[in-house]
Amino acid sequence: MSEEQPLIDFSQIPEYEMKALCRTLLQSCREFYSDPKNVEKFERWKAERDKENRKEV
After folding, report:
1. Residue 47 pLDDT more than 90?
2. Integer Cα distance of 56 and 33 in angstroms
3. Does this model's pTM top 0.85?
């Protein structure tokens, strides 16, 4: 990586906050993937990524 990434110490996040974050993220994922267009885009992206990974091996 050329840019520095912030270091996040996940062990410092209280459990109740982590659960709240996870619930929010899960709901967002469900909404996103409920749209067939988004599922199709994901499948195309995944196929392309898999194709590139096979070239590297």
Report:
1. yes
2. 29
3. no
